[in-house]
Amino acid sequence: MDLSAEAKKLLNLIEKKEKLVAMLAPSFVIDFGYPEIIRMLKKLGFSYVAEIARGAEETNKQLFTLMKLHPDKKFITSPCPNIVRLIKSKYPNLVQYLTKIDTPMSATAKMVIKKYPGYKIVHFSPCLVKKLEAKEDFPELNILALTYKDLSDIFKIKKIKPRRIFKTKDSFDITGGHTRLYPISGGLAQSAGVTQRLTDAEYDVVSGPALVNKALQNFEINSDIKLLDILNCDGGCINGPGMVSKELLDKRRKKVIDFWNKR
User: Fold this and answer.
1) What's the CA gap between 252 and 261, in Å, rounded?
2) What's the first-to-final CA gap in the chain, in angstroms?
3) Distance in angstroms (rounded) separating the CA atoms of residues 239 and 151
4) How many C-beta neighbours within 10 Å does residue 72 have?
5) How far apart are CA 209 and CA 212, in angstroms?
6) Are 108 and 174 within 8 A, CB to CB?
7) Would you tell me how many other CB atoms lie within 10 Å of the CB of residue 202?
């Protein structure tokens, strides 16, 4: 099995019995069942499991505060590390519009550090670029970022399989709610209440490379728009390259919405 460098590092930490906390991005329900994923992670060696949807709630609060303080300014959301890097490399004139607030990953990590000091944070998501975000954008948080594919490979190596027998402790130690919509295109705008606070002309929801570039090219020209909720992958994070699932986007979206409905 061809393991990533991050997967090898995690296996090494597990062998050394390091104190570990897992952080799961809200798209995890596409590749793993809940709550069995909690039991599997704890069997793997994690002491605690945090839901990144909780950090996304803090991201929303910071975004709302920013928009309230600067009602006449234009903003581009920044939770997608691929978009941030695209803007910095191809559209440097738009860097000024990026929301300079915590991403769901960094916000959750800060909560974990406060609640579980001395534990190593391991982040799981469908995004390959999250590995760069962890290393380059938030090195002080010391996050090890892996994909769901990485995690699936490690489960296979350790022979850990899901089973439909749960205990009361098989639940998130840090949990979120309405922000479980984040991985769907427009999930940020909806969960943050942007769709209620702004008119249709004042915000735009975009995903997929073709639409992304078009939206960025027109952002400064469009005088009406105040917020651009933008994700690089077509359909949102539910279509990230680090996923195991081969299901159609509609089915992936339904899984996320169904889990959101159980909040």
Assistant:
1) 14
2) 37
3) 17
4) 5
5) 5
6) yes
7) 14
For residues 225 and 9, what is the distance between their CA atoms, to the nearest angstrom? 44
Q: Is the pTM of this model over 0.70?
A: yes
Q: Residue 215: which H helix or E strand, with range? A: helix 209-218
CA 194 from centroid of its chain's CA atoms: 19
pLDDT, tens only, 77-109: 999 999 999 999 999 999 999 999 999 999 999
Place of tokens 């390259």: 241
How does pLDDT run across 216-230, given as a tens digit for each residue?
Answer: 999 999 999 999 999
CA 263/CA 249 separation, integer angstroms? 22
CA dist., res. 185 & res. 204, Å (int): 11
User: Residue 199: is it exposed, middle or buried by C-beta count within 10 angstroms (0-12/13-18/19+)?
Assistant: exposed
* Helix segments in 133-208, DSSP class H: 148-157, 187-191, 194-197
Helix ranges (H only) for 70-203 are: 81-90, 104-115, 130-132, 148-157, 187-191, 194-197
Q: In the structure encoding, which two tokens stand for residue 249, read together?
A: 């986007």
Domains of the chain (ranges, CATH numbers): 5-238+249-261 (3.40.50)
Tell me the sheet residues that pair with 75: 227
Going 136 to 133 to 138 to 189, the CA torsion angle's sign is: positive
